[in-house]
Amino acid sequence: MKNAIVLIVLAAVLAGLVALPWVAPYFYIFLGTEVLILGLFAASFNLVFGYSGMLSFGHAAFYGIGAYATALILLHLEWPFLACLVVAMGAGALLALVIGFLSVRLDEVYFAMLTLAFGMMVFAVAHQWRSVTNGSDGIAGFMLGDFAPGVDWSLGDPAVYYHVVLGVVVVAAAVLYLICRSSFGLILRAIRQNPERVSFCGLDVRRYRLAAFTVAGAFAGLSGALMAPFLRVASPEMLHWSMSAEPVLMSILGGTGYFLGPFFGAAIFVLLESWITGFTDAWMLVLGVMLALMVMFFRRGVLGTLLDWVQGNHD
Amino acid sequence: MASTAIRRMAVAALAAAGIVGSMAAQAAEDPIKLGAVYIRSGSASSYGEFAEQGMKLAIEQINDNGGVLGRQLEYEIEDSQGNSGTAIQAMRKLVYQENVDALMGIDSSGVAQGVASTVPQLQKPLIITHAATPDVTGKMCNDYVYRISVNIIQNMRGAAEIAAESGAKRWTTIGPDYAFGRQSWDFFSEALKEKNPDAELMSETAFPRFGAEEFTPFINSIMDADPDGVLISLWGGDLVNFVRQASDMGFFDEDIEVMFTVGAATEVLDALGDKMPEGVWLGTRYWFDAYDNETNRDFVAAYKERYDKAPSYNAEGAYAAVYAYKAAMEKAGTTDGPKVAEALSGMSFDSPMGEITFRAGDHQTLVGPTWGKAGPMDDEFGIRSLTDVHVFDGKDVTPAVEETGCSL
């Protein structure tokens, strides 16, 4: 019964998202695209944070490398977009494997600091390697061609691009969800709750953490690959630590204990930003106050609090 | 039953027709909306503030005189945060959410390079009022992007003439580490080599990050390299911080010819007051005291009365852009994006810099920079005056269309 309701609600949301270009004002196509991409980015982060219990401050490195890979490929090689997505996922996974290999051995604040340091190293490379990355101006002026060889969907049309992003994000989210629900995902949750006990069971905690970190890197790379053509630029800001903070905020806002929490947080983040900046430039101040309230009173995030309320679970 | 339903539908249809009809009638009365994107946060936010003031002043003046095509003007402004991704999002919001009729603004060359290729999709013209990279009216030019202000090549050709006259031989640069700083040095080098083949362009250059705040190590390395002349293309809060730190280190006491490419921005002069050293060369895209025409006299007087300040080049660019849109919309007889964009091409109009023209071949106006030496304090505005003023004619410093790399 409960599952049926969840499925119906999900199907309704999905139908609403598919229909969005026809029912909402045109501008909401852009907001919708941004929500989906950042939602995937935050969900990939939550695999590391919410499921595995590791607070990474370098997640933008994988997102950014996906964006740069896509921008460079479109600019120099003019490959189909699907190929860019695959390469970006690979690049994100590879970078995550390297950074993860050096970081997952540490815990808590040391892990956070190490990922922050590696993230800023990647930022510095993009910022200073002018001949390849065009320095702080980033890579712009690339064109979107076919989606796959011979499949020309005119991706330059924002409504088409929105639907492509929706399709990619739904598939990616489904895969990510299956990973979270698998025995692998269960072990990650066990590690978050009690790493000692898991290792006493004979499992290599470090290896599981590294695997989670790498998978998260791949999906972050994918989200970056979707973002670069949307923004029409891959810039060092996408690699900056403040970009790494965004999925942290979104996950906490939405609820780290739920698979869809980060998507929910991304939606709140993007929609509120758009509305609030309409009448004040002090959007960050409003966000800060909201986050403080969330952490103090609603630890389960907006989605968690909402679900508790719906289920009449006022504990 | 059936007849009631039909009657209800007929009433509903009539009501709907009435609403649509009144909407159409209202559309003619609706104000024309201009959308602006400027830097409104961070170390260069005063540029966005001055631009908004110039824009507001022009809109008020036009509205007091009957508006454009019988409609009033309105504006919406968004923060670019000096970041091209944010600027593109802001432009989409202005066009699709706020339904603006035309776009203007853009402060940074890096941002301009990022946004230029996305404008045709929006189907609204963009008049760039500040960003100076030649690329957007060069290899990246398109039907919808125009620039009203002096670009880097125009400014650097003027600068090279001053540098050649100064007699200084060994030149280096300090500039922000992005398109603007790099291209300023490239085009200065090219122009100076032409004017003075003996000049030496040093390899020891300094490109601090935009917004760096701490310039001491860069000032040190430049002083160690012992140049005769230094071209400084820092701007915004960077320039204010640089001048303060360089003064403390005795940089201005050395026997060095110092040229600030955009140092006579009144935002900066305002912030520095008499801390801007006398005797350094200051460039600007527009100097309020350098144009003796009625439009300029009126503009400066109105600006002073309204804001008690001297208008900066950014204020002037925004002010002139509003008048350019007025002229273009009247020429086109509509506010339709593609038609207004087309009307701008080759159009001449009155600006504080005199009558200026958007060249049809690349959409750059034929304007030139003003250079002068920082002189005694101007008591009226509390900023440095300019002495030994050189106003360059746009025709002398603008490359031919064939040289720009633009084909329209």
TrEMBL record, chain A:
**Residue intervals passing through the bilayer:** 29-49, 56-74, 80-102, 109-129, 160-188, 208-228, 248-272, 279-298
Q: Classify the main location.
A: membrane
Q: Report the membrane topology from the UniProt record.
A: Multi-pass membrane protein
| GO CC terms | plasma membrane
| Statement: the UniProt record of this protein carries the keyword RNA-binding | no
Matches recorded under CDD domains: TM_PBP1_LivM_like
Task: Indicate the secretion signal residues.
Answer: none
Which keywords label this protein? Answer: Cell membrane, Membrane, Transmembrane, Transmembrane helix
GO MF assignments: branched-chain amino acid transmembrane transporter activity
> Pfam families this protein is in?
BPD_transp_2
The subcellular localization recorded is: Cell inner membrane
Name recorded for this polypeptide: ABC transporter permease
